[in-house]
Amino acid sequence: MMDTLTGALGLSMYDAAFWMPLVMAALFFATVVAGVVLDGFDIGVGCLLPFAPSGARARMLALLSPWRDANEFWLVLGFGLLAAAFPHAWGPIMGALYLPLSLLAIGILLRSASFELRLRAPREWQPYWTRAFALGSWLTAVAHGLILARVLTGYETGAVYVGLGLFFALCAVAGYSLLGASWLAMRQTGPLRLRAAMWARRTVRWVAGAVVAASLILVLANTGVFLKWGRVPDLWLVAVIWGGLLVCFITLEMSLQRMMYQTPRMGSLPFILVLLIYVMVLAGLAYSFFPYLVLDDVTIWDAAASISSLQLVLSATLVALPVAILFNVWVYWGMFGLSRPLEPPRFSG
């Protein structure tokens, strides 16, 4: 594939004009994966708040507190990287995604403001800010689903595409809810763990349906994607991805069912399986779209900034990336494993 690309572009594989956009595209993909996974369980817990008993909502929000600020980092980084490294794709993408991006901005603003204001509000006002946080989470998830539908369908318009957008919006809510529920099941014990396992079982098949639907839309609606996945050298990759997804979904169902009826030895297994599913799906989408940012229209080389601008962005990235990685490993290390509420100190009389 690389030989074909270099021949079509008239560039050498070692030319900075060829490999620097590839590096920036890889960094952008890593940012998208981090945003979906790390901000995803945060969004998912917010989507589940309306279905939780009032006594459990405060605990669910308290579990999110250590990572709320860090989770918002990935969205800002992703948009900043897209604007700085691929400015020529900004117009086509932003113009086609005006409505879902507006919903996304409203949802993020509502989530951030309501979470902070709830911590500072009088007790009688806190339930209202909790509902606002849940509403913001739903808007954020719905916006992500609409963005995915628009990207998959090549930004087409019409009644059928509106229906697909609504379907993927519901699937996005279910997908983030699955991520949040599996994370809660890993972090908690007792009634909240049982509820989280029940929520996860109710959403996992929506996620499976969305994966199948997205694959069919890409393959049947785009000849290039169909030919890419149908080539003999790539059939093994198709088999590995679909086989891995099938094993993960079956194991996830079994582990959630076991969690509802007995204490599991590995409470983190459902969360790890959901992470594997999402990483495989995102990798499949990235491979399907490569080398395009806008399918069949704008490649990463068409959208890339000048070499001098890419050098500046890459230099800043190489300086900041090790610090960001170390900081985020340190911050997110505690998101795995069982969480226990702090006990109040005992004062001697």
What is the gist of this entry?
The chain has 349 residues and is mostly helical. The chain contains 14 helices and two strands.
Write the layout of secondary structure elements.
Blueprint: H1 2-9, H2 16-48, H3 54-64, H4 68-85, H5 90-96, H6 98-120, H7 126-152, H8 159-187, H9 191-221, H10 223-230, H11 232-261, H12 269-289, E1 292-294, E2 298-299, H13 300-303, H14 307-332
Antiparallel strand pairs: 1-2
Helix pairs in contact: 2-4, 2-7, 2-8, 2-12, 2-14, 4-14, 6-7, 7-8, 8-9, 8-12, 9-10, 9-11, 11-12
Structural classification: mainly alpha
CATH class category? Mainly Alpha
The residue fraction in helices comes out at: over 70%
Provide the gyration radius in Å: 21 Å
N/C terminus separation: 75 Å
How do the strands line up in the largest sheet? 1-2
Kindly state the number of beta strands: 2
Low-confidence stretches: none
Q: N-to-C SSE series?
A: HHHHHHHHHHHHEEHH
- In the CATH hierarchy, the architecture is Up-down Bundle
What does this entry look like structurally?
- The protein is mostly helical and 349 residues long.
- It has one domain: Formate dehydrogenase/DMSO reductase fold, CATH 1.20.1630.
- 79% of the residues lie in helices and 1% in strands.
- The protein has 14 helices and 2 strands, in the order ααααααααααααββαα.
- It has helices at residues 2-9, 16-48, 54-64, 68-85, 90-96, 98-120, 126-152, 159-187, 191-221, 223-230, 232-261, 269-289, 300-303, 307-332; strands at residues 292-294, 298-299.
- The chain has a two-stranded antiparallel ribbon with strand order 1-2.
- β1 and β2 (298-299) form a beta hairpin.
- α2 packs across α8 and α2 packs parallel to α14 (307-332).
- The protein is globular, with a radius of gyration of 21 Å.
- The termini are far apart.
- The mean pLDDT is 83.
